[in-house]
Amino acid sequence: MNLPENLRYSKEHEWISIEGEIATVGITDYAQSQLGDIVFVDIETLDETLDRDEVFGALEAVKTVADVFMPLSGTIEEVNPILEDEPQKINEDPYGEGWMIKIKITNSQEIDDLLDAKAYLDLISE
User: Fold this and answer.
1) What total of structural domains would you count in the chain?
2) Burial of 121 by CB count in 10 Å (0-12 exposed, 13-18 middle, 19+ buried)?
3) What is the pLDDT at residue 39?
4) pLDDT given for residue 22 in this prediction
5) How far apart are CA 27 and CA 98, in angstroms?
6) 8 belongs to a structural domain
7) Does residue 92 fall inside a structural domain?
8) Contact 68, 58 (CB under 8 A)
9) I need a labelling partner for 42 at 20 to 30 A (CA). Which of 7, 83, 86, 99 fits?
10) Measuring CA to CA, which residue among 122, 77, 117, 118 is closest to residue 100?
11) 107: Cβ contacts below 8 Å, ≥ 6 apart
12) Do the beta carbons of residue 56 and residue 23 sit within 8 Å?
């Protein structure tokens, strides 16, 4: 399983890449493998400010629908436009072209609560 060391992770299986006050968010390789083939991405929260752990969208896979959660409080600045026509990018490249949203972080202290790669691996290995 692919688990980049340079990213941070949430207990709800989102990955986070932070550059300044902007965080790019997607779901982990583990999460996409558990969901199966993703056929639809529903994110209607562009320009909304949400708190950590609030639902920002949903992923529809062949057999299930799963909510996706904000790993940090912030304003959703961008939604990945590729996912509208190619939701399978989340399965194919979860840490690259399959990113989901970019947020402007409103509470940088929450970053300390995110997991590093080792802690996330421990979480999914339980």
Assistant:
1) 1
2) middle
3) 97
4) 98
5) 8
6) no
7) yes
8) yes
9) 7
10) 77
11) 52, 72, 73, 74
12) no
Does the residue 117 lie in any domain? no
Task: Give me the phi and psi of 67, to 5 degrees please.
Answer: -75, 150
Residue 41 — left, alpha, or beta (φ > 0 → left; ψ -120 to 50 → alpha)?
beta
Give the domain extent around 42.
Answer: 29-107
- Say if CB 122 and CB 14 are below 8 A apart: no
What is the model's pLDDT at position 126? 81
Q: Per-residue confidence of the chain (126 residues) as pLDDT tens digits?
A: 789 999 999 999 999 999 999 999 999 999 999 999 999 999 999 999 999 999 999 999 998 999 999 999 999 999 999 999 999 999 999 999 999 999 999 999 999 999 999 999 999 998
The answer to whether the beta carbons of residues 1 and 79 sit under 8 Å apart is no
User: Is the residue at 72 inside a domain?
Assistant: yes
Q: Which two tokens stand for residue 92?
A: 């194919």
CATH number at residue 68: 2.40.50.100
C-alpha 37, offset from chain centre: 16
